[in-house]
Amino acid sequence: MIEQGKISYKQLISMIVMTISPTAILYLPTITYKEAKQDGWISILIVTIYAFLVAYIIINLNKMFEGKTIIQYSGKIVGKYFGKVIGFLYCVLYIHLNATVIREFSEVLAGPFMPETPLLFFTIGIMLPSMYGVYKGIEVIARTAQIIFPIFLGAVIIIILLGISDMDFSRLQPILAEGYEPVLKGASRQISWFSQTIILTIITPFTNLPKKIGKMTYIAVILVSIMIILVNISIVATFGGEVELMNYPFLSFARYISAIGSLERLDSIIMFLWIGGVFIKIVILHYCGVIAISQLFSVKDYRIFSIPVGIILIILSNILWGSLTELKESIKMINVPYNTMVQAGIPTVLIIIEKIKRRFVHNEK
Amino acid sequence: MNKYIKKLIDKSVDKSKNNSNNNKNNDNNDNNNNDNDNNNNSNNSSNTDKKISTDLKNNLNYIKKQFGNSHDIIFREINVGSKICIPAVVISINGLVNQNLIDYDLLKRVMHIDIKLKDDFMEYIKKSIITMVDINDINSMDEVFDGILSGESVMLIDGYSSGFRLDTREWKDRGVSQPIIGSVVRGPREGFSETLLTNTALLRRRIKTPQLIFDKVNCGQYTKTDIVIAYIKGIANDKIVKEVKKRISKIDIDGILDSGYIEQLIEDEPFSLFPTIGNTEKPDQAAGKLLEGRIAILVDGSPIALTIPFLFIENIQTSEDYYTRPWYATFTRIIRVLSLIIVIFLPGFYISAQTYNQEMLPTHLFITMAASKEGVPFPAFIEILIMSILFEVLKEAGVRMPKHIGEALSIVGALVLGEAAVGAGFVSNPAVMITALTGIATFVIYSLNDSITILRFGFMILGAAGGLFGMLIGTIFLLLHLVSIRSFGAPYMSPMGPRNNKDMKDTLIRVPLWMMNSRSEVISKNTKKSSTNRFVNKSK
After folding, report:
1. ipTM over 0.95
2. Does A261 touch chain B (CB under 8 A)?
3. Surface-to-core class of residue B215, CB atoms within 10 Å of its CB (0-12 exposed, 13-18 middle, 19+ buried)
4. CA angle at A241 for the pair A239 and A247, rounded to the nearest 5°
5. Which residue ranges traverse the bilayer (chain A) (predicted)?
6. Pick from A140, A265, A279: CB nearest B484
7. Contact yes or no for B472 and A275 at CB 8 A
């Protein structure tokens, strides 16, 4: 079945925000703290500028080819053979990224909450609804994202508000004590998350208002960065130097709040809402991967790929990394450069080539 | 969607073909060759070629043969005109007709008046002699049988190939009484009855515009049930009306006994747990839905009307919400949503909290629960399962048993079983309490009764197998499924699924009536209501 669904621009915003933020909230504070120490929030601001650039490039690239995904139009830019190579790279990107996310998700659930349970249980558990969601199509995914997005946002804001009394903003000082270098280093670690607007390359043809995509994406990026900055500030303000030692600072933050006052079990509730958010991310990436594969092999009905790709994802998330430490090292060493190259590098190259081509043709006329 | 309906239609086509084969065998014993020919086409008198012959005896023989020897069919042979005495016959079914009407307005007039023989005899009788209100010409045997069987009287006159059909319908009916399922504290208490004419009249009383259209169709090969599709032209979506008519015309089934048959045969998602066609037993509720742009289907013989399209949010709306003031209406809506959540999630949550996720309960509560579970031999899952099944058995028995035994047995069920079970150490007190609360909360939303019972058991199993994570996965599945359903084109979860802020005025909260000035876009194209802006009046 050719995908006939159409998503509105509000649904697009929720989808983009839900793609970037859940894992970013969980992992980014530690990563930035290691480099930029207490100036993590400045590095996030810098990365936002980068995110705008990437979004701009991707949106303009999509505008040049209305209604087609990157797999379909990359062949037109660089020729059929290289087009297939680029398409293949994107398939691998989505699947690899998704496997990383699934592994992160299973580790988070297993580690603090249910250490005795094998990881495969969580992996299969989250992939089953994802396969069902991909089978149903983009409209179902968009509507679910629209329902879960306010709950997720509300949960994050409530947690931050509840913890305000424990925050000591003097821990954020001194600002820029060591100069710009550590801040830029910290920014360089985060760029792979913020260039995840790459999903736009697949989803753009399915929106019903192609003119507004630019504005909506920028709004989404601003929303995401505000959320992550707030989380970062509140965590650093509460914990100070201990952030370096934590695996999941946001979780510890929720637990810290629940230990004070009579609100017990807050971390479990937050965890469930967070699971909803990660599910949306997983299902969107799964969907992008399935569409990419089906267009690479020119298969009209993308739905038959939903279960096989799901099984591949389960297996990959199991065998690619042995433990949490390996996962973290791999994210730092492999994911960040590789993702950035494919998510930001390739569209940049493509748009430059296309612009040159068009000017050439224009000049010839 | 169409695939399922095709299967159902094919199944019922095969069934009816088998039936016609059986009847062919029975009718082969007939000596009359004419009738055999006719019966080979179908097994009842749906012969569109058969005309009324001018010979009265022929007609009579044919009709008597078709009806066999049923004793409730009255053949009254009369002489038309006191002087000219043309033989005629009036056929009616005893029990379906008002015999007074036939006596005074038909027989007396036709038999006692000196009718002159005229050229246009039938017209003359119809217009000047018979003093009944509803009279129609009929020209084929089909209409003769239709008329007789629906309670009208048929008059055939010797020498003429057309006859009359007179509406003399009257039968014993339950009357307009209070409905069982939709009782309200504030609001009208009339409910639909089993007669189609009564129901359409009840709707007409409430909506007095000529734009209220009643389209009648016929369904069911043996029952030939009358079905009325009601909608307000100009507000209802014409595409949906067309789709409904198309689907009903494709139904090929032996008999329609209740509106539930129609619901199951035309619905969009036959395999989903959730209904995509609404039920209502109250005419004011049906009228309200018609005014929103929905379509109502009334089926003869069933007091329950169907409303199309049906969204999930309508499950928590009742007609009483609109007759009371907004604060309490909003409050009761929140209570309903809360009871929905309790029914689906509470037993599973209890099971998973007891078995896997003990950290979810506050410490004090957990100690109390652990203490009351001392000495109970079963794990939490078996406890809740036993009590839930017991509750379902009690519920079903309560519906079926005769009234006078019912009261005594309910005391037995509630007190004795519950108390004795705890006393014997079978189950713990929290389990009994949770099951009782869940069971009562099931009845808060009647339209979802069956769905949430099944869901409740599903989530119990998920909670026992996968803990809270399992229940979460089940919730995600449920959400994905609900969001993907459409009811005749309208997304099931709107206005929350595809978010539509204009329609959020009537979901969890119910804004005051003077703020509700638009119809929902997914239901009707005509979204502008005549608004009632009370502040305009005040300033005057």
Report:
1. no
2. no
3. middle
4. 75
5. 12-29, 41-61, 81-97, 117-135, 147-164, 191-209, 216-239, 269-293, 305-324, 336-353
6. A140
7. yes
